[in-house]
Design a protein that fits this description.
The protein is an alpha+beta fold. About 20% of the residues lie in helices and about 25% in strands.
């Protein structure tokens, strides 16, 4: 057996051992050709034009080094091993200066020869395509051209001294991206997103802001991959192209809010969600029975810690994510949807009465969110999951490979699973019909639309006519829309809770910052992620407070993170799957207290949760204002104080709505914390004392205090919240 795939597995940031590297070489540069062979192969030769190139076994397996950065956790090994590597052989070719045909011959127990492949080098040229738009800001336009056509466009945008560059979707490493190199491709980086500059939620949009007030922004109107690099007085933008050699570029003039408004006018904006989304959300991946869920909610009640929503991740059998684990039912061999009356629930099962549980939670004022993933497992030969997989393929609901066969997930999470083609309504309806009983009969309130980063392949085929290079980034947008539409159709608010997205995701529900460790570094990165997402129009955003992965955080980190989260759009705690090993890793406040031995945790967390309840009316009012004005809810200071250069020395400070300035305590061991207050009159919400803006102010920060300042004009209406 011998395998060569010129594009490899198409991991966006790493190569696989059977790949050509680079896929598209520049004229005059060599390429590395890789193959994977079976163990019986003793010699591999590449027929390269009229030469024979001898391949040698690869010394090390290809690996994505950043995948290993996730460290300890249930997905780390899977992410690191996704590229394979056993049986890899490779050779470096002579420089490629013209199109070359090549194939491989393997010798062993039998001789085997591959099909012919072709590589055509490319060169950057000043002519070849068109940049539409740009309004005089574009210069240095170039086109990457090969015998196969124009592959990419590249241009430069001028930057001035003092310009700041903010946006590009949700970014974890810095608020100001000037001087950074980054790209826009949807990717599941399991932890350490800020370290490696990767994101679940990219957008080809950014704002340029300057203290003199002459701001502007740009939007590369594409769903294909883009790259950005700023150096000196220029930002270089590179754009992957399709059949048409055109870059469509939107330039928006004005201040930050005016720029964001123009962008959202094009791509869509959030719709107002019900007030309950601003209450505390509770979650733990190992809450996998009705008894466990109710025990956690009973503890909230008994400890007087208010909670507004419970996210139940491990409710299903994780085969089809449509049926409660341990339910009894007849398999629908044609893959059609079940009704709620088709199920019987065992008294001794994991979920003896889901409807009664949900009704009881609703009676307590707690909403119920169920976990989802947009994949269909294929490793089962019997049961409903097998019937659904067969129906997905038979009825044309699966994303396809270029040869028309079903695409199987190439990533590390739910590997080899089928992916529903949610680009078209017929499949969106087919996929959600299996889940409709959860909403209409069981009264579920929303869905955690996890995942969505599973599409790898430039030539995947979508039913809306797009190929993978154009359609893959849009998949998470379709995914959240699909479940929002299901909820709307049942008369419910479209409460989806996603981590991945792209341009257009602004209109689809709530987002959280994804998988992260319980560290101070991750805390800081998550605040940055919220601010950059907000800059791009994401209104409803949160994170797993104090992180969800690894050992239980210490009390200081947990309480500082909880205090900060009171003043973020969504407040949620969550913990990762850990194979139910002891000690447990729940992030419930009482378990953190028990694990750390710190008796302050429960009373302080209760204090934060009660404060959050009092803050809900303000959050709801400000969210409505955000949606009508496009001024972000979790707002970087440059939106209101672009003319103040000092704000950039305090990148983790932000406004929550119009009238609260928040400065989370982001370092361990802090006893005092310094906040820069922009010009204006402010009130320290914990003391009621006035503070004059335009200067730094330092205050004591015991664990029950996060520095928050209210605008003086709004204080009469807010003072009761903090009393």
């Amino acid at each position: 057996m011998i395998t060569h795939r010129p594009y490899g597995v198409e991991h966006p940031y790493a190569t696989s051992p059977d790949q050509r590297v680079p896929v598209l070489p520049l004229t005059g540069t060599p390429v590395r050709l890789g193959v994977i062979v079976s163990p019986d192969i003793t010699r591999v030769v590449c027929e390269w034009n009229d030469q024979e190139l001898e391949l040698t076994p690869a010394e090390t397996a290809a690996a994505d080094a950043a995948a290993l950065a996730g460290g300890e956790g249930h997905l780390s090994a899977a992410q690191a091993g996704a590229l394979g590597g056993d049986g890899g052989w490779s050779v470096v070719t002579p420089p490629v200066d013209k199109p070359v045909r090549y194939r491989f011959r393997a010798e062993g127990s039998a001789e085997e020869v591959t099909e012919w492949f072709e590589v055509a080098p490319a060169v950057w040229m000043s002519a070849g395509g068109e940049v539409r738009g740009g309004d005089g800001r574009v210069r240095g336009v170039e086109w990457l051209v090969s015998d196969l056509g124009v592959q990419r466009g590249r241009f430069r945008l001028g930057l001035r001294d003092g310009d700041r560059l903010v946006g590009f979707g949700e970014r974890y490493d810095a608020l100001d991206q000037r001087g950074k190199t980054l790209d826009a491709v949807v990717f599941e980086q399991y932890k350490s997103q800020g370290v490696h500059g990767r994101t679940y939620l990219p957008m080809p949009f950014a704002q340029v802001t300057n203290p003199d007030g002459e701001g502007w922004g740009f939007h590369v109107r594409t769903s294909r991959r883009t790259w950005y690099s700023s150096e000196g007085d220029e930002l270089t933008v590179e754009v992957e192209l399709g059949d048409e050699p055109v870059v469509d570029l939107g330039i928006y003039e004005g201040g930050p809010t005016a720029v964001l408004k123009q962008f959202l006018d094009e791509v869509g904006r959030a719709e107002e969600l019900p007030d309950w989304v601003f209450r505390l959300w509770a979650s733990g991946n190992e809450w996998n029975t009705q008894e466990l869920v109710m025990a956690r909610m009973d503890a909230h009640r008994d400890l007087a810690i208010p909670v507004g929503a419970v996210v139940i991740e491990a409710w299903s059998d994780e085969e089809g994510i449509t049926i409660w684990r341990d339910a009894r039912y007849e398999v629908n061999q044609d893959g059609s949807a079940h009704k709620s009356t088709d199920f019987e629930y065992r008294v001794d099962g994991a979920w003896p009465d889901p409807k009664a549980m949900i009704d009881e939670l609703h009676a307590r004022g707690i909403k119920v969110i169920l976990w989802q993933i947009p994949l269909q497992k294929t490793e089962f030969s019997t049961g409903q999951v097998a019937a659904d997989a067969e129906a997905m393929v038979r009825e044309g609901h699966a994303v396809l490979e270029s040869d028309g066969t079903p695409y199987h997930n190439r990533g590390w999470w739910f590997p080899k699973a089928l992916m529903p083609d949610l680009s078209v309504q017929r499949t969106r309806d087919w996929w959600t019909e299996k889940r409709r009983y959860l909403v209409e009969d069981l009264d579920v309130d929303g869905f955690k639309t996890d995942g969505g980063e599973h599409a790898w392949g430039h030539d995947l085929r979508y039913a809306d006519g797009k190929l993978g290079a154009e359609g893959n980034n849009l998949f998470p947008v379709h995914y959240a829309r699909t479940f929002g539409d299901l909820l709307r159709s049942a008369g419910k608010a479209p409460v989806t809770f996603s981590r991945s997205g792209f341009t257009g995701s602004q209109a689809h529900g709530i987002f959280w910052a994804g998988d992260e460790d319980s560290t101070w570094e991750a805390f800081r990165s998550s605040v940055t992620a919220g601010l950059t997402a907000a800059t791009c129009g994401i209104v409803y955003w949160g994170w797993d407070l104090a992180g969800f992965s690894g050992p239980v955080p210490d009390a200081e980190l947990y309480l500082r993170a909880a205090a900060a989260s009171v003043f973020m759009p969504i407040m949620q705690y969550h913990s990762e799957f850990n194979h139910h090993q002891l000690p447990l890793r729940d992030r419930t406040p009482w378990h953190v207290a028990e694990t750390t031995g710190d008796e302050r945790v429960v009373p302080l967390f209760r204090q934060y949760a009660v404060l959050r309840e009092r803050l809900v009316p303000y959050l709801a009012e400000e969210a409505a204002k955000t949606i009508s004005t496009d001024r972000p809810l979790m707002r970087p200071l440059f939106f209101d104080h672009a003319d103040d250069p000092e704000i950039w020395n305090h990148p983790h400070e932000y406004l929550l709505g119009d009238d609260l300035l928040v400065n989370p305590v982001l370092e361990p061991g802090a006893t005092t914390w310094t906040t820069y207050l922009p010009a204006g009159d402010w009130i320290d919400v914990w003391t009621g004392e006035p503070v004059t803006g335009g200067a730094e102010v330092t205050r004591d920060v015991p664990l029950d205090v996060v520095p928050v300042y209210a605008r003086t004009a709004r204080w009469p209406g807010l003072s009761g919240v903090f009393s």
